Amino acid sequence: MPTDGLTLDALTLTQGDFSLSADLTVPEGQTIAVMGPSGGGKSTLLSGIAGFLSPTSGRILWNGQDITPAAPAQRPVTMLFQEHNLFPHLTLAQNVGLALGPSLKHAASPKVADALSRVGLETLGPRRPAEVSGGQRSRAALARILLAGKPLVLMDEPFAALGPGLKQDMLALVDETLRAAGRTLLMVTHDPADARAIADQVIVVEESRALPPTPTAELLDNPPPGLASYLGTSARARSSS
What we know:
By secondary structure, the chain is an alpha/beta fold. It has helices spanning 42-50, 92-97, 110-118, 134-148, 164-180, 192-198, 216-221, 225-240; strands spanning 5-15, 18-27, 31-35, 57-62, 65-66, 77-80, 152-156, 184-188, 201-206, 209-210, 214-215. It folds into two domains: 5-76 and 151-240, P-loop containing nucleotide triphosphate hydrolases (Rossmann fold, 3-Layer(aba) Sandwich), CATH 3.40.50.300; 85-149. It is built from eight helices and eleven strands.
């Protein structure tokens, strides 16, 4: 069994009547798109890796170490949700500073200033989330991810609500910063253009299974039937909107 990166060893995750299985390895430092039909289990997969959902069987390993029993905060994992999870009563600097610990004093840290600068928010630290745009909130959430420094990053459609131009800017920023740090990324997306833009490989989640990663171009040029049907439906929906 490979020891470098993320290994899901005969893993089964169950939520109510739904069960998802996964037996795969993601090499360390890779960017992986997670794709598949709605309701197929993509968010369930990320919740299991992050520790928010306990497996019914199998193991989760990072660089050969079994992290299955570890609480979410003790895992080498940080997660960015679509709604960004910024606290509305805190400034952007205070939100980003939470990556360093629960004290709001971290907002004054030079590390927070550097993280905000890296995402182009160097002058907006004193503002609250409601006082900035959606794209700026996305950048603040990304700054917190960067500052957390954990080697495995999970993103669940974090930029789906953004316009095409801003989304591409955010994807480029994610690709540049995480690759430079050698961090591993699993990103749920419904858009094949996102996968082609930054993903080395794609994990397809369909029919209650998360399949092993496949090189992005190879998969999207010749998708399996379930993904092909879903992508065709998605493409028609986008063209009619």
